[in-house]
Amino acid sequence: MRTRVKICCIASREEAALAVSHGADAVGLVSAMPSGPGPIPEARIARIAAGIPPGVAAVLLTSMREPEAIAAQQRRCGAGVIQLCRALPDGARAALRAALPGVRLVQVVHVRGEDSVDEARRAVANADGLLLDSGDPDAAVPTLGGTGCTHDWTISRRIRQAVDRPVFLAGGLTPDNVAAAIRAVEPFGVDVCSGVRIDGRLDPARLRAFMAAVRAARP
Q: Where are the chain's structural domains?
């Protein structure tokens, strides 16, 4: 099965076009976050999302937790997928489903230990997929992605085996380690931000190397 690729922290239409031209299946558009790289204004997210071609998913990353606020943000931004970077209150994803029919929901689980397996089993309810990352939402200043750090892939593999939804693997992936990560976890897809950037800019050479490594891992 082909491994899908999401290129995250897209900052402009030019970066989106570069990612798509190299075969990205999805592009990540980061709204306001408490920390980390990549946030851009909602007006820019809307402009970029409107230009994404058919067959490529525009993914809105949000740190919001209340369904009404998330739904309003999605309507402003227009992305067809929402990546929920924090755990939501009970019933929130069901409320989002009702408010945004046709919009897909990807719940982030930050893999921090054995408890993450049970967290992931709970998190799949009313979600279309999971994204496994390396943040710390309980830190004094929460980190919700873009850390450049890997986590324990053996736990990620257990999560992938335990849930019946597509799983994306994120967290510190680079052209040098993504093939090993894919072989270890066998995810539906991988997600990368800093691993394909130099000085914060999406780098064509690193992007080509990353995509080649993904294809080589699961030809």
A: 4-217
The b-or-e profile of 1-13 (16+ CB within 10 A means b, else e) is eebbbbbbbbbee
SS (H, E, C) 8-66: CCCCCHHHHHHHHHCCCCEEEEECCCCCCCCCCCHHHHHHHHHCCCCCCEEEEEECCCC
Give the tens place of pLDDT for each residue, 71-104.
Answer: 999 999 999 999 999 999 999 999 999 999 999 9
Q: Where are the alpha helices (DSSP H) in 124-217?
A: 153-162, 178-185, 204-217
DSSP conformation class of 200: T
Amino acid code (one letter) for 82: I
Residue 72: the pLDDT is: 98
Burial class (CB in 10 A: 0-12, 13-18, 19+), 191: buried
**Residue 39 carries which side chain, given as an amino acid letter?**
P
pLDDT at 143 over 90: no
DSSP state of 144: -
Question: In this structure, which topology does domain 4-217 adopt according to CATH?
Answer: TIM Barrel (3.20.20)
User: Percent of the chain having pLDDT more than 90?
Assistant: 89
